[in-house]
Amino acid sequence: MTDDNQVSETVETGITEGGRSGAFRDVLSKNHARRGKPPVHFADLTDDERIAKAKELGLPKFRVRQLANHYYGHFDADAGYFTDFPAGKRDEVAREFFPTLIREVTRQVADDGQTIKTLWELFDGSKIESVLMRYPNRTTLCISSQVGCGMGCPFCATGQLGLTRNMSTGEILEQVRIAAAMMERGEVAGGPGRLSNVVFMGMGEPMGNYRAIVSAVRQISAMPPEGFGISARNITVSTVGVVPGIRRLAQEGMPVRLAVSLHAPNNALRDELVPMNRRFNVDEVLDAAHDYYLASKRRVSIEYALMRGINDQEIHARQLANRLNHYGDNWAHVNPIPLNPIEGSKWTASKPEDERRFLEILHNAGITATLRDTRGQDIDGACGQLAAKTNNA
Ligand code: SF4
User: Fold this and answer.
1) Domains assigned to the chain
2) What does DSSP assign to residue 225?
3) Whole-number mean pLDDT of the chain?
4) Best mutation site among 27, 240, 272, 285 for ligand 1, i.e. most ligand atoms within 8 A of its Cβ?
5) Looking at the annotation, which residues are catalytic?
6) Entry pTM
7) Where is the active site (predicted)?
8) N or C: the chain end with fewer CB closer than 10 Å?
9) What is the pLDDT of residues 136-160, one digit of tens each?
10) Per DSSP, what are the bridge partners of residue 197?
């Protein structure tokens, strides 16, 4: 692949053209009308653009650094109360740099207050969600990068919703800032603490919104006042297997972890479960994932939703182990996760004994694998379900 433009275009638009090759499905939501763009936020601007905008407001350059200190250093976007700013300028700064991009609609709390799932409304009425999970040694935020998802995986609630639109960098980053502020202020059970990990595993296919997610990763990981100071090593970008996106991410030089949602070890099955497989098949996806491991030195996560009688049998575990061992030892970590089924769907969760057997076969083949934590299952399940229900309401 040498055509940079082609790579860039493929990554940027992801899957939004209704199947460029005709080999995969693009599900556009009925909500997919022209909605306009989200208001421009401080996080959407380069430093030069911030300085230029400040100048328009009659503010000198050093004020931009002050704003960055508030935003990244103190997780504070409430410019109306920035007492180090001239009182007469605060409202204007709030309006021009910090428009409200996400508004809390509902909050569901589980696991004794240590899991908080929030449904957010965006400027155009779209709904997305994020989940904050506190553990003894870390606190992880799972964020959304698109409204809905166009990948059309038939077992997934978000897949049924279709793709409405990409989120802006500001909309993505605001999920992180608010969670970091909640942790700092002690609003999550367990007292004040620090948001330590961010995973792009909420709604959407991150590689379908490549430019925005890379900008978000840079701003999450840079040290204040350029970013929130969460180590790139503690950030995970997931993908259903958009190969050009994986390859491009490998060249960014950021040690983020890659998670690949494989869900099936062979093409016949994966074609059915993950329509994107008809565009980039299992071999191409695993080749790219292994190359990512070589480039980043970060072990790749293989996500595998276990579905009863479909992909959870011994033969599937053996095929998966063979595929992974083909590339050598210790480069991938498998996370089987029991499927949280959509009501009325033919795809349902595996039997516990099948889950155990699946793990055992992987372990016996020398593959590291842990049944993924299903935090928050008691507050309405897996990725996308809460938003899917509300958007359809
Ligand atoms: S499983 Fe992931 S990639 Fe597939 S439709 Fe759902 S959110 Fe999109």
Assistant:
1) 42-97 (1.10.150), 101-379 (3.20.20.70)
2) T
3) 87
4) 240
5) 129, 383
6) 0.90
7) 129 (proton acceptor), 383 (s-methylcysteine intermediate)
8) C
9) 999 999 999 999 989 888 888 888 8
10) 140
The token pair at 372 is 């993924």
The residue to mutate among 167, 261, 302, having the most atoms of ligand 1 within 8 angstroms of its beta carbon, is: 261
In the β-sheet with 368-369, what is the strand arrangement from edge to edge?
102-110, 115-122, 127-134, 139-142, 197-200, 235-239, 257-261, 300-306, 332-338, 368-369
Q: What is the pLDDT of residues 295-324, one digit of tens each?
A: 999 999 999 999 999 999 999 999 999 999
Helix (H, G, I), strand (E, B) or coil at 237: strand
| 75 vs 63: CA distance, rounded Å | 17
Cα gap 292→278, rounded to integer Å: 21
Q: Specify whether the CB–CB gap between 280 and 242 falls below 8 A.
A: yes
Using one digit for the tens of pLDDT, what is the confidence trace for 128-142? 999 999 999 999 999
Distance 202 CA to ligand 1 centre (A): 9
pLDDT band per the 50, 70, 90 thresholds, residue 376: low
pLDDT at 271 over 70: yes
- The structure tokens listed for 303 are 């996500």
